[in-house]
Design a protein that fits this description.
The structure holds two protein chains of two kinds.
Chain A: E1 4-5, E2 33-38, H1 44-58, E3 63-67, H2 77-86, E4 89-93
Parallel strand pairs in A: 2-3, 2-4
Chain B: H1 2-9, E1 14-19, H2 23-32, E2 41-43, H3 52-60, E3 62-63, E4 68-69, H4 70-79, H5 84-88, E5 103-104, H6 105-114, H7 128-135, E6 145-149, E7 158-161, H8 162-172, H9 179-187, E8 201-207, H10 210-213, H11 228-244, E9 267-269, H12 280-283, E10 292-306, H13 312-321, E11 329-333, H14 335-343, H15 348-358, E12 360-362, H16 363-367, H17 370-381, H18 387-392, E13 398-400, E14 408-411, E15 419-426, E16 441-443
Parallel strand pairs in B: 1-2, 8-9, 11-14
Antiparallel strand pairs in B: 3-4, 6-7, 8-10, 10-15, 10-16, 11-15, 12-13
The chains are: A alpha/beta, B alpha+beta.
Chain lengths: 96, 448
């Protein structure tokens, strides 16, 4: 131990991570509702509109619906409930 | 990412789309949420400012991270059957030891640098003796929980106690008598190491008797490197933030594109003795005999000037409309400036009101801002005033950009010149990377 010192770890205490599974996947999106969630980040609305147009032109059997949360970076349980009620899948963007 | 994680749990297959610059952050966020296999896809950075046709090219192009057609990643992610890893997620516990393995001073210094626990300036290693001595700066036990902190709103918050703050205070070179101030700053829940792309910092203002008890500088060079307490308290808050929240690592837990030199240290005291106005903390409802620290979230821009001279109103308007108006100004003025405004007939509040009334931009310019669009516009659409009226304004109509309550004034400086600064400094309400949205003035006395 000569010449050695003991020092504290400066980091805080991380929370325990509990594993969460992904949702079951459908075999197809045909005839189903795909929600396109505009997360409200600057220009995300333009991106989502282009994504909607892509599905309309390339996968017209998919019904797309664009939705938005009430505000940026804040959870919106009502919007999630709406998506979960009749959505087969969702795409959200652009950003984190 | 948070919405995607929540929707997957609600049984909705969800694909989060991010720009490629956020790939590491997206992966780390998903792992910390226990869902490491969430099926993310990526487009090139940036999306902001790109035209509809350019964004369509992103959609029809290649995912820069997955190296495959973007839409293949989307459709595979939504339709491909789940793997075993998808079904179980990731459960794990991370622990941080109280003490590190004994080693030589040289090796430990290298370890602290390699782990990203410093600001790359020399630190004092937090030995048991030094931390114990630091803890004598408070009467409270070292294992008392101070709070939780996170680099941004969608990351998991880490918890920390008094001892962890003391450890970082030692590293910063602070003295035990400063510890209650540092604890009050940390207890704000506001991170001085926000991961926002905007490179935010915090600026902290100390009021009350403790300023003089610990020898803080509110005179000549108050904002500069001329006082031990100012310098090390600000640095201790910064080091505490980056370490107790689990890091401030570029590309992972820090995304500020330019960075910010206020992130090294930014703390000063108000010159209450030379100010003609009530101290800042008294304006917030505290007693003059209370000692407080107020944390402003910003540091993104600085406007400056002298006066007030004959054309001060023009100068102030130029400064106010020259701000990045998502981040309202903390106006820091020398006592000479404050007293000159008194001579002109202004109180602190009437000067703030004047600023709010005269800081105007054409609506077109007001709304043509990334953060105003992202964070304020949803409130305007929802009918929240004054934002709803600002949204209704014609593009050339001049609209107010700040409410009186957005603007704060603090008096400090040594009266060698009638100088002022307007520093980006949001005092309260929402701000990226802030855990505490409502109470950024903390009472230091409860941490003594």
């Amino acid at each position: 131990m000569a010449g050695k010192i003991t020092v504290h770890d400066p980091r805080g205490y991380p929370p325990k991570v509990v594993g969460k599974r992904l949702a079951n996947r459908p075999e197809s999106l045909d005839g189903k509702v795909l929600y396109l969630i505009d997360c409200l980040f600057d220009n995300a609305d333009v991106f989502m509109e282009q994504l909607r147009l892509w599905f309309a032109q390339n996968m017209p059997a998919v019904e797309t619906r664009v939705v938005r949360p009430r505000e940026s970076w804040v959870d919106d349980p009502e919007m999630r409930a709406k998506v979960a009620a009749d959505g087969a899948a969702a795409i959200i963007g652009v950003g984190l | 990412m948070g919405f995607a994680l929540a929707l997957e749990q609600q049984g909705v297959p969800t694909i989060p789309v991010s720009t490629h610059a956020f790939a590491r952050l997206a992966k780390a966020t998903a792992l910390a949420a226990g869902m490491p296999t969430i099926r993310s896809v990526f487009v090139p950075q940036p999306v902001v400012g790109r035209s509809a046709s350019e964004l369509r090219a992103y959609i029809e192009g290649t995912d820069p991270i997955l190296k495959q057609p973007f839409m293949k990643g989307v459709l595979d992610g939504l339709l491909q059957p789940l793997t075993d890893e998808d079904l179980k997620g990731a459960t794990f516990e991370r622990s941080t030891p109280r003490l590190l393995e004994p080693d030589t001073e040289e090796n430990l210094r290298q370890l602290f640098i390699e782990q990203g626990w410093t600001d790359y300036l020399p630190v004092i290693l937090p030995t048991e003796d030094l931390v114990e001595r630091m803890l004598k700066g408070t009467s409270l036990p070292g294992d008392k929980i101070v709070g939780r902190m996170r680099p941004t709103s969608f990351r998991e918050a880490w918890e920390f106690d008094i001892e962890k703050v003391a450890v970082n205070a030692v590293m910063a070179g602070a003295r035990p008598e400063y510890l209650p101030v540092i604890l009050a700053m940390a207890a704000s829940g506001i991170s001085a190491r926000s991961s926002s792309t905007t490179s935010w910092a915090t600026i902290s203002v100390v009021n009350g008797p403790i300023r003089n008890e610990i020898g803080m500088n509110s005179g000549v060079g108050a904002l500069g490197p001329y006082n031990h307490a100012n310098a090390t308290i600000g640095r201790a808050y910064c080091l505490t933030s980056q370490n107790v929240q689990g890091g401030s690592v570029p590309g992972d837990t820090y995304m500020g594109t330019l960075g910010n030199n206020w992130n090294y240290t930014a703390c000063f005291a108000e010159n209450e003795e030379r100010s003609p106005w009530s101290p800042f903390h008294v304006d917030q409802g505290f007693k003059p005999t209370d000692s407080t620290v107020s944390v402003f979230f910003g540091g993104w821009y600085t406007q400056s000037g002298f006066g007030p001279r004959e054309t001060w109103q023009d100068k102030f308007i130029r400064c106010l409309v020259g701000t990045d108006h998502y981040s309202p100004p903390l106006i820091v003025m020398d006592p000479l400036v404050a007293r000159a405004f008194v001579d002109l007939g202004y109180t602190k509040q009437s000067l703030i009101d004047w600023c709010a009334q005269n800081a105007k931009l054409p609506a077109r310019n007001y709304w043509d801002d990334q953060w105003i669009t992202t964070l304020v516009r949803p409130h305007a659409i929802a009918g929240v005033e004054p934002y709803a009226s600002r949204l209704k304004a014609a593009p050339d109509e001049l609209i107010s950009i700040f409410r009186p309550e957005d603007i704060k004034i603090v008096v400090t400086g040594g009266e060698t010149q009638g100088a002022f600064k307007m520093i980006g400094g949001r005092f309260s309400t929402r701000g990226p990377g802030t855990e505490n949205k409502s109470n950024p003035t903390g009472l230091i006395d409860v941490w003594r």
